[in-house]
Amino acid sequence: MTLNRKPIQVSEAVGRVLENVTVTATEVVSYLDAHGRILANDLVATHDVPLFTKSAMDGFAIRAADSKGASGDNRVPFKVAEEVPAGSTSDYVLRENEAFRIMTGAEIPESADTVVMFEQAKETDEGFTVRKTFNPGENIAMQGEESSEGDIILEKGSLINPGTVAVLATFGYSEVEVYKKPVVGVLSTGSELLDVDEDLVRGKIRNSNTPMILAQLKRAGIEGRRYHMQSDDLDTLHDNMKQMLEEVDMVITTGGVSVGDYDLLPKIYDRLGAEVLFNKVAMRPGSVTTVSRVGDKFLFGLSGNPSACYSGFELFVRPAVQAMMASENVHAPFIDAILDEDFTKPNPFTRFIRAEVQYVKGEVYAKPSGFNKSNAVTSIAKSNCVIVMPGGTRGFEKGDAVKVMMTDVTSSADRFGVE
Ligand SMILES: Nc1nc2c(c(=O)[nH]1)N[C@H]1C(S)=C(S)[C@@H](COP(=O)(O)OP(=O)(O)OC[C@H]3O[C@@H](n4cnc5c(N)ncnc54)[C@H](O)[C@@H]3O)O[C@H]1N2
Ligand code: MOO
Ligand SMILES: [Mg+2]
């Protein structure tokens, strides 16, 4: 184990992780299970949308020419010849001043070319009258106006969102080829750790990292596999991790990556013959975060301190998981915000501060979410983002511009966004 590790910049560390990604194989899933997955092929339109020229309104379909010259003083009368509800069609050919009573979504019969909304017509015993000249195409959705058969609607690598699911259904794709979700194993190390339902005893604490990471994986759309936490015993830990490597595509451990007598991960990477991509990053917290590789499998050695562990996941694991599924957009959104309270500590390394973003009158404010040391756990719970302060900077003051990495886009303002 080397005590003098050489720190690399965060961006370089992220880059090294992404360079080493192996994309997962693909599988075919039901369109109903496809949300959150990544398309393995271009999604191609199997027909025009709209599929046929249809009424966009409830009203009357007429020949526009028949309304010529209509005005308030000279209302032009129409007679209803047939009804066309949505889902029905008609081959009836309109004669002069005849109309279809037609509903939104119904196919426009060949002989009609415009639709008079109910609100634009005055109903009479025989039909209705209009008070203006209609142009062809009014209140009509034209076949193919949105997209044409053969169009690429979404490219390979796109995230399947609820709209994509609707597109799959539109085009009759009941199944879709997507990239497999990596199988991710999570193992916390530390002889001080107890399980959630164990009684606290002197010198011990409950394991909060494993469940936190399982939740972070869930937020990234992955069902992680929980491994039972391990004491700091070299042989057992080694054997367990070797076994894990046979069962999963990616191993996440927490704790034991620093330079303490019982920080065993460096020795285990050695024994496993892992290629260490980096073991020191110029960041706080989580400077000892270590990422290595055995074959095409990543081992993420996250720091044991909860805040460092959390940030390490968001910075390195989340993009890696996305990239393994061939996502085009692997990074969290970074936004500009106004710092909402003084932060006086200098930042020799890039600093990540769990924080809360709020939108106030069109401005974005970010405020540290409480006690924020590496060992903090409560500030993670109150955060929806992480403030990034570049290395080599002095303290920041309230009102300064800062960069913010969003972690939780489901968080929202306390009021509805429009009056
Ligand atoms: N001589 C030095 N000592 C330390 C350094 C250093 O550079 N030189 N770095 C410090 C920093 S910074 C950090 S961060 C920690 C990293 O420690 P490890 O990643 O080796 O993690 P552990 O030693 O196992 O645990 C650290 C801390 O976190 C608690 N912990 C661990 N696992 C969990 C868990 N699953 N749930 C909740 N809490 C957990 C553990 O009890 C310790 O308090 O090293 C510093 N030391
Ligand atoms: O690695 Mo530690 O979390 O920098 O404070
Ligand atoms: Mg340690």
UniProtKB/TrEMBL annotation:
Q: Which reaction does it catalyse?
A: adenylyl-molybdopterin + molybdate = Mo-molybdopterin + AMP + H(+)
Q: Which InterPro entries match?
A: MoaB/Mog-like_dom_sf (IPR036425), MoaB/Mog_dom (IPR001453), MoeA-like (IPR038987), MoeA_C_domain_IV (IPR005111), MoeA_C_domain_IV_sf (IPR036688), MoeA_linker/N (IPR005110), MoeA_linker/N_sf (IPR036135)
* Cofactor(s) the record lists: Mg(2+)
**What top-tier enzyme class does this entry carry?**
transferase
Q: Describe the location of the MoaB/Mog domain by residue ranges.
A: 185-323
Q: Which GO terms describe its cellular component?
A: cytosol
According to its UniProt record, in which pathway does this protein act? Cofactor biosynthesis; molybdopterin biosynthesis
State one Pfam family annotation. Answer: MoCF_biosynth
What Gene3D superfamilies is this protein classified in? MoaB/Mog-like domain (3.40.980.10), MoeA, C-terminal, domain IV (2.40.340.10), Molybdopterin biosynthesis moea protein, domain 2 (3.90.105.10), Molybdopterin biosynthesis moea protein, domain 3 (2.170.190.11)
Which CDD domains does the entry link to?
MoeA
Enzyme Commission code(s) on record: 2.10.1.1
The alphabetical list of record keywords is:
Magnesium, Metal-binding, Molybdenum, Molybdenum cofactor biosynthesis, Transferase
Q: Name one GO molecular function term.
A: molybdopterin molybdotransferase activity
Instruction: Write out the GO biological process terms.
Output: Mo-molybdopterin cofactor biosynthetic process
Q: Which family is annotated?
A: Belongs to the MoeA family.
Q: What does this protein do?
A: Catalyzes the insertion of molybdate into adenylated molybdopterin with the concomitant release of AMP.
The protein here is known as Molybdopterin molybdenumtransferase
Q: Which species? A: Lacicoccus qingdaonensis
